[in-house]
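Side project, low priority. Logging it here so it doesn't get lost.
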Amino acid sequence: MKTLHLAWKAVLLLVVLACRSNAHTFGPLGPVYGPVGYQKGIALPRFPAELGSHLDALNPRPSILAPRPKGRLQIGINRSFDSPIVLNSSTVKPQEWSLLSNGWRVWSAELISEGAVGVRVHIESLALPAGVRLVAYDPARPTSVARPIDAQSLKGEREAWTSTLFTERVVVECQAPPGANLDQIIFSLTGVSHLYRSPLVKDMAEACELNATCYPAWAPQAAGVARISFVDSGNAFLCTGSLIGDSTGLAPAATSAGAANYFLTANHCVSNQRVASTIEFDWFYEAPTCQNPNPPDNWPTTGGGATFLAGVDDMRGSDFAFMRLREPPPDGANRLGWSRTTPSNNETLTVIEHPRGDYKRIAFGSLIGGDPLQLGPDFWMVQWSQGVTEEGSSGSPLFNSGQQIIGQLWGGTSDCSDTTGPDGFGRFDITYAAIKRWIVLQGTYYGLFSDPAGVQPQSAGSFTLTTTGTGKFSGSLQLGNARYPISGQLDANGNAQITVSRHSLGPLGVALQVDLTGGSDQVLGTVTSTNEDWTANLMGDRAIFDGKSFVCPLAGSYTLLIPGSDSIGNSYGTLSVSKTGKISFTGFLADGTPISQTSYLSKNGEWPFNNALYSGQGIAQGWLGISSPTGSLSGTVSWIKPFLPKAKYYSGGLTNVVDVTGSYYDRTLPVLGFNTGDAVLSGGGLPGQIVSAFSLDAHNHVTNLSASNKFALSFTVATGAFTGSVAAPASSKPVKFGGVVVQNNGTGAGAFLGTQTSGTLVLQGQ
């Protein structure tokens, strides 16, 4: 080994390259390839091909007598420069920079690592003023450009590795915009990671491995698994890991640049921030079909590294590394669900992996008793019935039969020659305690607060609360017509107490507790007004649906009916629920007051219904629920109207606390469950009922069958609402009405306005 080491660590050759002609610019972030030439250059001697094989020989497969992590698969080796290229005000004078016609200044160097299938350049002591960027590219293919490095991408760090360029020759170019202070630009090119094994080579895995694409039931989970490449001490490696959701169940897709995207892998792969900053993520590196196990030559790759949030090695815990991606993954990459429940001994367990860096594979097995790998209680022991794991599989997620993550691969002794060899996985239920603050805290909650003795307008309202993985929160309380901003910091247990200013009304005290058990996705608390002597209980649910990989199962259209009484007509409305669980509601109270709301369903189908009314002096509030699979609505609404002497209807005020009803609405079906029916109006100051017969055809057109009444009825087929009018023979003025159909019982209901009160309307079959 010593002889080989000296062979590639030979004296480095420093070359100064001549300037080129024929200027050509490749885009605003591309290289400037032309008259600037290369001010400096380094050429490393050819790397001995046999050294890669020798490195593999130093890592024999584990045995039951000497188990070890499957291992991050090494694909590259550190090659440090004996004489780094240093750029600062002392080593490079302003006149040594090339001035372009657009006012930019450029300095560049060429680096050659002979025999490399790929190169990543190590840059240290970095200080880049705003607007200055470093670009690395392959001079033979100038459009092949590594991700630019600038002050923003550095995240305050002083060193960086360029993203991988599949070439042995790389140009590093520093580009300074007009007006940039060249004396403030500092960096050193100190070495390269020389890739001797290409991650582009297919069929590196053993023959007994299973093509994951052949198991379409696991496609949503496979879409959250990525191959990762990274640099540690200059050496390049491959492992596997997975996006992890912030709730149990199949979690939202990670396609939003504004959302936090968390990633789980093994600690023996990535153990600190320095390594995490170098990670490149390969997504959807998989066979296109079961019959065609040849992945495409190109697949989505994201870089920028990750922020290392938590981790522990196998000596102190479950060998996990938990990170937040700095760049969002591509569309279609799923954040995966997780579980802290212990799997049963006969439960089928599954791993999705990149063995030896190859395209995505899958294996199936079950728990075995004992601790044959002597890892301790923080690990699951798994034996495979189909497939195995290999180097490069480290960090792969282990799934239970519910397709939820329960661990990540440490290692073991399984291979195609001994498929019964056990593998160990760090237990997610052990890992959870260290990462719950991120995966449970983050989200947006929607809810209500009210006095436990009953809803009152002065002490009841709604709120929104958005929390981050660090425990910071912001949002608002709506109380009456006023909306008050809230913000603060949750402690390690998810608790916070804040004071909300209300000027002359006196402050509100708000206590919050976000549930960190991972089960309820709820926030609880209180809102207190000392001046007004009331305390309201607060409760809200996190919105967890994303509309893509985690679609709200209750998405669709609905109608809502708030029943009236002898002296109050029916209140009603229509609502739509999107795939993300977003509720859009519009309707009317029985006194003619329009109501509307936008909110979100909880994972249990609960809706925090709230409307501030009458300039904040009244309210309609209640927790409503949509049941599955019937699609019926239920819950209790409190409608409170104060004494309003100038009001046309119910000027003396009213309190109507009533159980609601409602139904899923299918616009493709007949709006009502009958062809011939009656419209019955009663109450509202009428001397008696008005009954009008009508028929309904297949196109939902209404024909008046009442010879004595002037009756009209029309439906808004898109929503399930209807309007109409009727005039009895003794009346010269028609009565206008409105309402909604309730398809689950085949009827319709609504209200009309009388002189001082409202009446009820019912559409029913004959």
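Brief comment: The two ends are 95 Å apart (CA to CA).
Revisit when time allows.
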